[in-house]
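Entry:
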Amino acid sequence: MTTTNVTWTQKDFDVFTTPGLEQRMAALIENVRPKFEELGGHFAAYFSTQLNEEFFPHVAKHARRKTNPPNDSWVAFAPYKRGYKAMPHFQIGLFDTHVFINLAVIYEAPNKEKIANTLLHNLETLEQLPKDFYISGDHMSPKTDFISTSLEDGFAEKLLTRFRDVKKGEIIIGLKILSEDAIKLSSEELLNRIESTFEALLPVYKLMVSSN
């Protein structure tokens, strides 16, 4: 597996408060994208080993943006070289407030209904996740809810039902590290945190792909 020395700095998070599309994209390309590329090589090898199938990194290019600058950016991982949006995928990314490490199925996935039903029938797998993990129904929003309380109060079930029944429904499960905590992590600590998060998410991913 490739070695990596990525750490986050406040400058990386400040990219997402840079005004203007061109200026923000320039800052993103200079500061953040090289780190995503490095993490991409490292964790594509990790997933290929863990899941016995070749995984590919996909660093967000934000190519379709013409006016609005991106509020976040990421590297995604999937077992398909040409893209990741139509299937369950893993991500490492940044908003201006935090790092996110997650497993996502977004609205473009054609078999959302089967995946949702599989998860709804196997909520105990979600109950095994660490208590500080989150669940969300919108990959564009930095707002998330703790999965432990969401399972207790029925919100997780509502999100999964919406994911199944609503065309724009999505499901994202993972961990966020606040920027002020992320900038204190050494490269080794960051890699360990990311790897332990993905390790915890692997059973959920296997459930998702088993529903095909």
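The mean pLDDT is 95.
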